[in-house]
Write a structure and sequence with these properties.
Layout: E1 3-7, E2 29-30, E3 34-37, E4 41-44, E5 48-53, E6 58-62, E7 75-83, E8 87-91, E9 99-102, E10 122-131, E11 134-139, E12 152-154, E13 158-161, H1 164-170, H2 175-179, H3 183-188, E14 193-198, E15 202-207, H4 210-225, H5 230-243
Helix pairs in contact: 4-5
Length: 244
């Protein structure tokens, strides 16, 4: 589980803070809010909580109130704004430049089989590259495997906004143990639904009907807003199910 320490922009991380991996061959992974200054200096770029996951040999800065800054390998939910000859130009947040999605950046896509997206289409994608000097580039497949792995156009459903911290917790493999979340497990025991979580604070939900979809979205947003504990999340789900 990750430990957290309050940090400010401009600070330089001391060697004592850096995690010691159980496997020396595992490279140190720097996430949002950190910058590597060669040869071995790591500086803070945003205010927030420094999270250290020694098991994964990873560091990042969590800042719920800040704007999302695209980072390579992040999964995000984006909206197609417009298209050009070879690209879809997609909105990730209102505050970032359009992300560029190649029209063939889908599993097995050719000029004849590529998805025909229009303005307003929702997509689940991965950030391929990002820097402050270039617009982000995104793709709808895993570059390591070439497979979509659930990425592509999101049809139907609704999108709900959550904090960046909540989005990160929802993307953890062990939500209960590492993120203190049981809300999705509690809901899954009572109803069927699909969900896609973007690191940019967007959650797409599709359930059996509008009421069910709204119930899932409301459960996530109230858990996030009120910082509910595990027992409180269970009570919330039971209450909302009774009201539906």
């Amino acid at each position: 589980m990750a430990t957290q320490t309050l940090v400010m922009p401009g600070e330089v991380l001391s060697e004592e803070v850096l995690p010691i991996p159980s496997n020396p061959s595992v490279a140190l992974k720097l996430g949002p809010g950190l910058r590597h200054v060669p040869p071995s200096t790591v500086t803070i770029t945003i205010a927030g909580s420094l999270c250290v996951d020694r098991k994964k040999n990873a560091l990042w800065v969590e800042n719920n109130s800040g704007r999302y800054i695209p980072q390579p390998n992040d999964v995000i939910i984006a909206t197609v704004h417009h298209s050009s000859t070879d690209w879809y130009h997609c909105s990730i947040t209102p505050h970032t430049a359009f992300a560029q999605l190649p029209q063939l950046a889908f599993e097995g896509a050719t000029k004849k089989t590529r998805p025909q997206l229009v303005a307003g289409s929702l997509i689940y994608a991965r950030v391929l590259s990002a820097s402050k000097h270039l617009d982000p580039e995104i793709v709808c497949y895993n570059p390591s495997t070439g497979k979509s792995e659930g990425m592509g156009e999101l049809k139907g459903g609704m999108v709900f906004d959550v904090s960046l911290g909540m989005a990160r917790r929802l993307l953890l493999n062990k939500q209960k143990e590492e993120g203190g979340l049981v809300v999705l497990d509690e809901l899954a025991g009572e109803m069927a639904f699909e969900i896609a979580v973007g690191r940019n604070g967007k959650v797409w939900v599709k359930a059996g009907g509008v009421k069910e979809t709204l119930l899932v979205g409301r459960s996530l947003q109230e858990t996030d807003r009120d910082a509910l504990r595990i027992d409180e999340q269970k009570k919330l789900v039971k209450k909302l199910l009774r009201q539906t």
